[in-house]
Design goal:
With 534 residues, the chain is mainly α. The chain is built from 20 helices and four strands.
Amino acid sequence: MIENQSRLRSAIDTGLRDLFGGAISGVVSIVYCVSYAAFIFSGPLAPWLGYGIAATFIATTVGALVVALRSSVPFTIAGPDSSTSVVTATLVAAFVAWLVANGATDHVLEPTLLLMALSSMLVGILLCGLGLARAGRAIRFVPYPVIGGFLGATGWLMVSGASQVITDMRLAAANIHALVSPASLSKLTAAAAIAVSLYFGLRRFGNPLVLLGLILAGIAAAHLAFFATGISITDAQAAGWLFKPEAAVALTLPWNFDELSRFPWPALPHLAGDIIAMMFVTVMSVLLNTTGIELETRYEADLERELNAVGSANLLSASLGGYVTCSSLSRTTLNYEVGGRGRLSGLTVAAISGLVLAAGSGFLAYVPKFVLGGLLLYGGLYLLYRWLLDSWRYLSCVEYISLAGIALIIVEWGFIAGVLIGIVVGLATFALSVSRVHAIKFSFDGSEYHSSLDRRPDELALLTEYGREIQGMFLHSYHFSARPTGSTNTSRHCLQKKSAASCCSIFGSSPESTHPRHLASHRLSRSLTSAAHG
């Protein structure tokens, strides 16, 4: 009886900690999600921000629910992430620009929502395919400069997007005069103050709850400043300090015949690079976030299971009108630090996000733009520092130049150029690294390694006497066509150095006769024969 009561009390305590962790993570998720929605639905899409809020919380609700139920790490929190949201914003901006260029400005919102759902579906198919094929370990071998270049460029795009959220203008040479005007500078200064406060607050206290406190303090300080200066809510909205009130939205499923028939399918080839970039960045985000969660919580994760969980969440999000979702390192770490250890935490986040989705986006009219812009600015600068500045300390000169070059190419010419250059750089880096490795993995002689064949005493005596004259070599499992030359030269040197009648080289097997190992074997046979008789 006492044991049962102890178990019940322990289960209640665990459940309460999970609820508390989920509640805190849910509130933080709201802040992040609103900032991501404002980022994606900025510029020409700003009039439909309410729809962006709804799509974002659909993705958050579905992502938190599915990942909580299927993740190998039970306390994982999922939702739209900074890197994936930046690529989503880039994709959407390119699509809207294509619509404007082709005179389709009378029908923008519905195709945009359908495109976001379509990209989420493609990401889900890719992630589930990688998980089912158990290819999780393979993606760990993507060269670091390629990953760093993509995420470094993502940081700059987030900083530029933060400027558009704050001032309705991106960081560009054409907008310099408008950005340095007193009205824009005051907003950018306020956002910079939020970013600096987040940096020093998180660095000083090391507690993710500081982020929530500083965001709420920034909102309160803004309204106190409006009250002290006699600026009404309506005036602040008209001046661009606050978001304009959003009307209630009624989302419908994007997958209906009318919308599919009206969707501008010819735009997809122009968006192929951005879609591929979204798939790549999401896969890398799952990998990096899962690895980060393992390091922060000392909890071992199953990467293939994580790929399947996040892939399933994206498929369901796409079917309901959401967009790309991913496991979140920051929110999962926050949940863990406040005591969350079970799946109830993720379910709580899903419930809170669902409630916000049902309540609508009316609260957004009271949120200062510079607060959300400051959060985006902090996130973008953090990515820039981590991947473009801090990586200098532990990368070689060639690797760092490759990383910075990929980032600059993406910023200047887009993700499709970055994908192509990244592939070339990855192959070149691999070839350069392998070329520095000796073709022979290890070598031995007859005195160290003996056959398992039973021999007569006189034969054993001969092998003992001349064992050092028998030379064997194992080659690495990877070979390029030119590499057998190195092993051949080594074998020739072996014969010249030893008074051996033969020099035996041992290679791995390959089913193809044209494999470099077979070419090396034939070349060695000819060389050794001529050397032995020469």
